[in-house]
Amino acid sequence: MIEKTNHKKISLLSATALSATAMVGSGWLFSAQLNAQLAGNYSFLAWFLAALLVMPVGLCLAQVVSVFPVRGATTRSSALSHNSIFGMPFAFANWFGIMVCVATEAQATTQYLSAALKNTDLMNDHGLTIYGKLFALGILFLYLIVNFYGIKLLAKVNNIVTALKIFTPIFTIVLFLIARFDTSNFQLDSHYVYTAGSALGAIVGAGLIYSFNGFQLAVAFASEIEKPKRNVPLSIVLSIVIVMFVYMALQLAFMGAVPHEMLQAGWSSLNFHSPLLNLAILLGLHFLVILLMADSVISPSGTGYAYLGGSARMFYAMAAEGQMPQWSIGKLNPIYNLCRRSLLINWVMIAVVLWNAESWSSLMVVVTGYNLLGYMAAPISMGAIKPKTRVYGVIVFVILGLIMTTLPKHDLFMMIISLVVLMVIYGGVQLTKKNNFLILLGLITPFMGYLAMIYVYQNLIYVGVVSFLFYLFITSVRFIQFCKKYKTEGLSFEDEL
Fold this sequence. Notes:
- By secondary structure, this protein is mostly helical.
- 73% of the residues lie in helices and 1% in strands.
- A two-stranded antiparallel ribbon has the order 1-2.
């Protein structure tokens, strides 16, 4: 399963920059305010907990990559450890979450520029206008061009963009701290009682998971990174730690710089349309205003083109595992070492999502939910491939299950329905190949049943116990052997029975 290539690979520095770039996208422009609204002084704990959540997931994926350093490993992991039918829900959730993120980045740029320029031609109270959507599609086209000529061009552009993306938040932090730092802003809990539970809610509600999601880009590009067994986990840890400190410093500077008179009703009442930009204008930081306007293009774009490349590789991996039509991938370009057909298909689907979306916030929580579903594959695959890691894996899986309970129940329901529809269609296709219905049901039912169980009753102890038992079953030797016995690559289940 190891993909061999003579193409030059990217270094640890470039791999770290790739993930860091993806994490400093549109989230940094909005999340400081959303986090303050939902968690108050516990905002810093929320950033730490979010980093603490995604890092173990990344390290689980790194363990999978250490055995299978393949293209698009984020969507392929459960297919590698079990089989492609069992892995289909995870692969779809992971790929779909990353793909929609590309649309949110192009949308964020358009939304921020519209608010900065006070231009209602791009966006009004109902969301992006037709002109705004056309503008966002133009940005999306630039993402396509950056990816069209392979990982080396992407890495060169990305290294430059990363420097700018890291510089701008740090410069913003310094200017906010110098211009104004009101310690009384951190004594507002009398207006609204925040607890440690508020920090847990903010992980999803304020877009912190969304902001950190780029950590897995190094895994998606695993086959194109030098020494993946060493550099993939290192790049994950380094990028998460760097970005966590940047986000926490920005949170401190933002909360200290807000004029105290605007907080008479507490942090929950703060409502800037373009938070950092509006605050810079209030403080008279005109140079920063210009820089933030520029960064509203650079930061989301850096994340957008990285996610587009990652989603194309995930789609390629799903097709390679029989989870998508084989015609959708074609051959890797011999010069640029990528599947351009997969890239173009992803771009078209992202354009459709972008055209039908209204605003950044309308997509962010849904994207986060799909990301969490995709993350669940990481500890499952690790525990199946390396049984000695099951104790670590079950801890990570139970935590992810508990975080799922913080999603709005309606959103969780819609995600389950979308997966059910997908699996029904996918199962129907498999039945046309004369695959055995009962075997298909045995492979598809466990995870869908688990999701249904945590949806109907969201008591934390109950969800923790259900998650624990489900993980032990799904990574058991007997279930893994059952999955591996019934592969889908040209195999008729009836022939095996």
